[in-house]
Structures are given as structure tokens and as C-alpha cells.
Amino acid sequence: MSTRPVPRPNALPWLLLSAAVIVLDQWSKAWVLSSLPEFVPVPVIEGFWNWYRTYNTGAAFSFLANAGGWQIVFFSALAFAISGLMGWWLWRTPRGDWRQALPYALVIGGALGNVIDRLVHGHVVDFIQWHWRDYYWPAFNIADCAVVGGAIGIGLFGLVGARPRKAS
After folding, report:
1. Which residues contact 116 (CB under 8 A, 6 or more apart)?
2. Where are the alpha helices (DSSP H) in the chain?
3. SS3 of 51, please?
């Protein structure tokens, strides 16, 4: 008679959320590329929010944007590595632990959404621009929102959910 433990369901079905983020991100960028003029603000909420089609060859805040092209491969490889790590963590996470699974899935979807842009266009398409008077936040996209939201969730739920270990 076998005494193997019964495997617990893992959180890999949360990858469906990652897929939804990728679809929404790519759909929104296709809309931007077909409908918005380049580098022309289109007000959504006057004095605060514009649609603004622009491109980023770097990472957050245009980090390494003018590095000559190698950064596209570097950031793509980094996104694949992080997504793989988060996928492994999802595999090890119990299915019902949404506090861990949700942020991992968001980061995976956002990271891969921007990788698609880098591989297809050679840059990331950004189009959401927030500003206050003459102070402008760098333009961003749906994938960026997912990555930031996921990273906040990892930090927040990691701190809130951390339990002190009992001394043995």
C-alpha cells in the first residue's frame, strides 16, 4: 500500500489573471497605436490626466532608454526570469492563498505584457499621462499598473501576513 501524500491544489490557475492582464494590456496598446497621435496630449480629465502616446526603450522612468539596444534583451530576459520565479512561487502557493497568488499573477502579466512590446516593437508603448500643473509623471501603461500593483501587494501582504516563528 502506498503512503504517498495527496498533492494539494496549487495557485497555478491564477495564471489566468496573468493572461487577462496581457490581453487587456495588448488590446489597449493596439487601440493607442491605431487611434492616438504620437506625442500629442489628448485630455481625459483637464489639468490632471491625458492620453499621450509615447515610447520607452528602457525600464521604469526611462532607465537605460539610450543604452544602444542591448537593454531590450536585458529587460526581456529579466522579465522572463522574474516571471519564471513568480510562476514557481505560484506552483508552491496553496490555491486559496489569494494574498500571495494575486500579486504574483499581476507581476507576471505586466512583465510579459511589456516584453511583448519590446520583442515586437523594440520599445514599450506608454499612453497614460498624469500631471498637476507643470509637473508630469512619466507616461505608463496597463502592464506597468499590474507590475506596480503586484509589487505593492507582495510587500504589503508580505508584511501584514508575516507571522513570527516560534522558537524551537
Report:
1. 22, 26
2. 15-35, 70-92, 98-121, 142-161
3. strand
CA pair distance 132, 135, nearest whole angstrom = 5
If one compares 18 and 6, the residue with the highest pLDDT of the two is: 18
pTM equals 0.85
* Dist. CA 70–CA 143, nearest whole Å: 21
Q: If DSSP codes are grouped into helix, strand and coil, which group holds residue 5?
A: coil
Mean pLDDT score, 63-73: 60
- Name the residue with higher pLDDT: 81 or 4: 81
**Residue 130 and residue 54: Cα distance in Å, rounded?**
13
Position of cell 501576513?
Answer: 161
Confidence of residue 74 (pLDDT cuts 50, 70, 90): confident
Residues 78/121, Cβ–Cβ less than 8 Å: no
Catalytic residues: 126, 144
Q: Dump pLDDT digits (tens) for 110-128.
A: 999 999 999 999 889 999 9
Residue pair 94/1 in contact (Cβ under 8 Å)? The answer is no
Nearest partner of 153 among 92, 88, 109, judged by Cα? 109
CA distance 139 to 116: 18
Q: In 3D, which of 1, 3, 22, 9 has the Cα closest to residue 107?
A: 22
